[in-house]
Every structure is written in C-alpha cells, then in structure tokens.
Design a protein that fits this description.
5-stranded mixed β-sheet, 16 strands, 5-stranded antiparallel β-sheet, alpha+beta
C-alpha cells in the first residue's frame, strides 16, 4: 500500500498548475489560473486552478480535485498509476515499489522507448493531417459521409496518399527501425540486400488511435473506394494492443461525463459519425471482440455502458462475446445494456434515416444485462418443452457462474429457475449435485472454485527474545493532542508502532544492545500516557465525522439527498473511496454492523487509499468512542455543505474577473452560505 504520508508529500511537491497546464491552456487570474474546462464544453473559462491550494475546480460542471485526481479524471488512470506518473514527474520513488534497481532501470528504459515511439507516431499523425488538406478527393469523401471540418479536427483525421513511400517526405531517414517498430512501415525480406520497405497505410483515410492520455499509439485506415481490407489497423507494438485499447475514448471523455454513459460501437467510422450527429460519448473496439480489459477501462469513465450491435447474426455473436466479457464485472450498482439495430442499419445510417430521437429511444429500450443473459442462454431452445428448458438452464450455468456474488446474481438465479420451470432451491440443489459428481469443488451458490486450504504451519523457531517487549510492560497509548488524531499515525497498529519505535535502530547502541538511557528518558516523557484519566481520540473534520457516523448507521445513507451522495463520493482519497465503498456495500450486502463495514473496507484494493482512515476508525472503537446520535445527521450535512460552499466561494473571489457562469454561481453560493449559516445557528443556539 502506498503510505498516505507519501501521497501528501507528493502533492506538496507537485505543481498542479504544471500538471493541468499540459492539458489545458491556462491564464493568470488573480492569484489563480483560469482556462476552459476539459471535462465539459464551454466558451468562456470557468475552470480554476489554485496554486496555493493545489486544487482545480470548475464552476460550470462542478468537477474538482488535486493533481492525482486530475490525472485520474483526465487520463483515465487508476489511483496507483496516477500516483506513479506524478511521482515520476517530480523525481520521487513510490515506496511500495519492491522491484530491484535493475528492474526499475529496465522499466524506465521501456517507458523511454515508448515515449520515443509515441513521438514518431505523433509526427506521422501530423503528416497525415497535412496531406488531408491537400487532397480534394479525401476531403470530398469525408463530406460525403456527412462530416464537417470541425469533427475531422476533433478526431485529428488525416489521409495517407497512395504512394509506396509517402512517409519519406515526413521522416528524413526512411530506413529508421522505429518506423517499422511503430507499425508505420512494412519491412519485407530477410536478406538485407534484398529487403523492401513501404508504407503500411496507402490511399486511406487515417484515424489516429489515442490512449486516454491523448498520446497517439496507432492508426486505423479506411479505403476511399473499393479495396480490401476495407479497414486496416496498426499491428501490435510496444505501445499498441488491440485487445486493450478503445477508439475515441480520449475524444469522448467530456461527452461521457455530460451524458452519464458510454456507447460502445463496432467501428471507428461509427464513433466519428455519431459524434457528428450529437452522440459524442461513443467509443469502439478495434476489430476485436470486447475483452475484460476493455470493460475495466470503460468502468474508469462510467458505470453505465450501452453496447450497440447490428441486428444480424454477426451482431448477435458479437453481443454474446461482449456479454461474457461483461459478466465478471457486473455489480449491483453498474448498468450494462445491449442495443440491437435493424440488420440493414449501422448507427450512422439509422440516425440519418430515422433521426436522433429514434436512436435515443433505442438506447432507452436496450436489453438489460439480465435480459441479454436470458436471451443468450435460451438461444435455440424450445421453451415450450422440458427438453428445451433443460437445455436453456445448461447453457445458462456457465454464464451465471461468471457473475460476482451479489444481489444481481441472486435475482438472476430466481429468473433462470422460473423460466426453466423450477424453483431456485431445486435448481441450486441440482447444480450442486452436478458439481459434486464432477468433482470440480464449485460452490453452487457462487460458481467459484473453493480455495484449497493452506497446510497448517508448525513453527519450531526460537522466539525473538531480543525484540520482544518485557512481559510486564504494556504498549503506551497516545496522549490526546487536541487535533483529534495522532499525526504520527501511519496506519500501524498501536502495539506494533510502539514496538517498532522503541526497538528501532535509533534506540540501540553500536553493538545492537538497547540504550537504557533512551529507555529511561522515554519513560519519563511518557509516564503519564497510560493513566486512565486520558480522553479518547476523537474525530474533528466534518468528513471524519461523516465517515464515523455512516459506518455506524449504514441505513441512513438512503435518507441522504442525492447531492450529498455526490458530494461525499467526490471527495479526495481516502474519503471519496470510503463513501463509494459504503454505498456499494449497502446495495450488495444490506446493512452491516460497524466491525463488518470496516473489515470489508480493508479488503478493498490498495488503490482505494482506505488503510489509514479505516485504522483510525478502528482506533476509535478501541478507545470506546461512542456512536454518534442520529439527530446530529442534519447538522452534519449542513456543515459539510457549508464547508463546500465556503471553499468554492473563496476560490471564486481569488480568481479575479468572473465569467457570466461564475457570476451566477457566486450569487447562488452567497445565498446558500447565508441560509446554511442561519440554519446552523438555529440548531446550535448560544
């Protein structure tokens, strides 16, 4: 786990103006910087970057965060990758990296080579864009497909001329090995004297493929007239893998945020045409079936995904493969839907013939995940006969077993049993019996293999007397300091932290013995710490109180208004992660006791950054801090709202001249601040 202290150190050392400035053109505005928001379309700047706070905030769409959050939101990186990217920029080493210096050096060399390939690909992209302007035939083709110059610029579309060595005019050394390695040039023949080099892409409209950071990693090319293959992609390279990348994801980020879901189509021409027609939230796989890696990448940007397929047999097969990729990632709070167009249409032709409203209707009427699973399972089955129903259940089982445990899986079992003419208990019993006969050790309720018990360990080693504390000593506990928490608490349990500090190298003499002089001084300094009169450790910030309150009373999450849900889950780690997991647990597990909530939190991936906060809350339990009173919830919500309003107001005032959007927001904030202060005063009379 990356220590929280390191992350704070990293954020203190990084310059958020520099981080954001690579993606957004910023201008000085008072003590802050201002620019056009990269997360939603706007004509006057309302996106503020504060160097003093090291945060960003948009007064138009409300997005906000720190440097790590910006890398996650803008580049689609996970928390760990964002921290590592930022650390690399400022010359820090992430402390959880267990690799040897040789492995780190090798990784740095690989990354440097990838950057070099990216520069080559970007240069080729600029060359293709210049060639498009000089080709009336290519421009006429795009206009014939209904595309404007603005949309061509948005996707950086280009044109590869028909010659065999067109790239030689862009690159001084046409025999540069990087041109072959990047997939731009094909090298034929093993004998150096007889080798031939020629451009991979010739007489094609060029679609640069960009990763979520906006770096060009490959190309797709489409023929203008007749020819095979109609579509041609870059080959696998050190920076490009078709099974992991999605076309249009970089360009679609703002539209995804605005519309709230991602539309997955079958080709990059679909993506560009849909963007032209008002559906800028579309992406496409690159000539491959949808994979689990695609799904993971999509879920970084939205938990609402709609797959669009042609209604022919090929489209149905593609939908079945997408279903298999989706099922392991389905959850009670995620939505996956499947849209099937008439066989004679693709999204472009459908919208042009029937209009955007008809396509919106298709999206809203798309099959849910459960309906698609039932349809795939029932394919080719005569549900009017016992044989057909039995076959359906047999085909459904491997799909059902891909689902993670949760309420969705439980409900699908009931649906499958009902359609199969059985009760859920009978179906579950039958599957369990079949598993037992097959000896595959599967749990019928989940379909997952039982873990093999680990062999019992027998330890005969001598105890570590040198590092063990004396039997008559107990680890001291921290003295209350008025902060509400121990600033030196790095998540280590109290007894282990005491042992670590007391017996660390700094407390030993040159021969490794324990220095009694330091022991005596330590005892003198801390002699009163173990006295029973000490006060318990307490939470101080509104977010600490909210985490403590809702961990005790999960069910009250449902009583909170949606804007408070959004406010809480959008907080910086670890708080946003905590409330996101809490919401998911409530939907998947129902109301849980406090200890169970915190135990679940500790099982979350390390990228959630929950370790320090969970340890702090467990510490409160040890010290006997009582559960908060339920009547305090409205006041806590108002304090959270007021904290947010004051922070946003201060940022506005610091930013100099305001746009019309920002002025309107200032009026709203002022009224809201007055109302909240009055409400809190009434609830806390002096």
């Amino acid at each position: 786990m990356i220590p929280q202290g390191f992350i704070q150190d990293l954020l203190a050392r990084a310059d958020i103006v520099d981080v954001v400035g690579r993606a957004v053109q910023l201008k000085k505005a008072g003590i802050n910087y201002k620019g056009l928001c990269p997360f939603h379309g706007e004509k006057s700047p309302s996106f503020i970057v504060s160097p003093s706070r090291q945060t960003y905030h948009c007064f138009g769409c409300g997005v906000h965060g720190n440097a790590v959050g910006f890398l996650m939101e803008h580049s689609g990186l996970g928390f760990i990758d964002a921290v590592k990217d930022l650390a690399q920029d400022v010359g820090m080493t992430v402390p959880d990296d267990d690799n040897s210096p040789e492995e780190r050096a090798r990784a740095a060399k690989v990354r440097e080579h990838q950057i070099t390939l990216g520069d080559v690909l970007l240069k080729a992209s600029n060359h293709y864009r210049a060639q498009l302007k000089d080709s009336p035939r290519a421009v006429a083709y795009l206009k014939g497909r209904g595309l404007t110059g603005e949309i061509a610029k948005h996707f950086a579309l280009g044109y590869a001329p028909g010659g065999w060595h067109g790239l030689s005019s862009a690159f001084g050394k046409y025999d540069d090995p990087l041109l072959v390695e990047s997939g731009l040039v094909i090298l034929q023949g093993d004998d150096a004297a007889e080798q031939r080099r020629y451009d991979r892409f010739r007489d094609r409209i060029m679609f640069p493929i960009r990763n979520p950071k906006g770096e060009v990693i490959g190309f797709g090319g489409r023929v203008l007239d007749q020819g095979e293959p109609k579509y041609l992609n870059s080959p696998e390279t050190p920076v490009f893998s078709k099974g992991r990348e999605l076309y249009g994801l970089f360009e679609a980020r703002a539209a995804i945020r605005k519309r709230g879901f991602i539309l997955v189509t079958e080709g990059y021409m679909d993506v560009v045409a849909l963007a032209q027609l008002g559906f800028g939230n579309a992406v496409a796989t690159l000539g491959t079936a949808c994979t689990g890696e695609h799904i993971v990448k999509l879920l970084r940007f939205s938990e609402q995904v709609v797959f669009s397929f042609d209604g022919d047999a090929a489209g149905r097969r593609a939908a079945a493969r997408a279903l298999e990729a989706v099922l392991p990632h389905a959850g009670d709070t995620r939505s996956f839907r499947f849209l099937f167009l008439p066989a004679e249409h693709d999204p472009d032709s459908f919208i042009r013939e029937r209009g955007p409203e008809a396509f919106e209707t298709c999206i809203h009427e798309a099959f849910t995940l459960s309906r698609q699973l039932l349809a795939v399972a029932g394919d080719g089955c005569d549900m009017a006969t016992p044989e057909g129903r039995a076959r359906m259940l047999a085909q459904a089982r491997p799909l059902y077993e891909l689902l993670p445990d949760g309420l969705l899986k439980a409900q699908l079992l009931v649906e499958l049993a009902r359609d199969g003419g059985l009760t859920a208990d009978v179906l579950l019993h039958h599957w369990a019996a079949a598993s037992a006969r097959r000896g595959d050790r599967r749990r019928p309720e989940t379909g997952h293999a039982e873990p093999t018990p680990a062999p019992t360990a027998h330890h005969h080693d001598e105890p570590d007397w040198d590092n063990a504390p004396p039997p008559d000593e107990a680890p001291p506990e921290a003295e209350p300091n008025g902060l509400g928490y121990d600033p030196m608490d790095d998540g280590t349990p109290p007894d282990e932290r005491w042992r670590r500090d007391k017996f660390s190298g700094k407390n030993r003499d040159r021969k490794g013995g324990f220095r009694t002089d330091r022991a005596d001084s330590w005892v003198k300094r801390n002699s009163g710490l173990a006295q029973p009169k000490r006060r318990p450790l307490r939470t101080t910030t509104s977010l600490d109180q909210a985490a403590w309150f809702l961990a005790h009373n999960m069910e009250l999450w449902l009583e909170l208004p949606n804007d408070i849900h959004d406010l809480l889950v959008q907080q910086s780690p670890p708080y946003g992660s905590f409330f996101s997991v809490l919401e998911r647990l409530l939907h998947e597990e129902g109301t849980l006791p406090l200890h169970a909530v915190l135990d679940h939190m500790q099982l979350e991936p390390q990228e959630m950054g929950l370790g320090v906060l969970v340890t702090r809350l467990k510490r409160l339990i040890e010290l006997g801090d009582n559960a908060p009173n339920a009547t305090e919830l409205p006041k806590l919500i108002d304090r959270l709202r007021l904290d947010q309003v004051i922070d946003e107001w201060d940022l506005l005032i610091e930013s100099g001249p305001l746009s019309e959007e920002a002025k309107q927001r200032a009026i709203e904030l002022n009224a809201l601040r007055t109302e909240l202060k009055a409400r809190l005063t009434r609830s806390n009379p002096v």
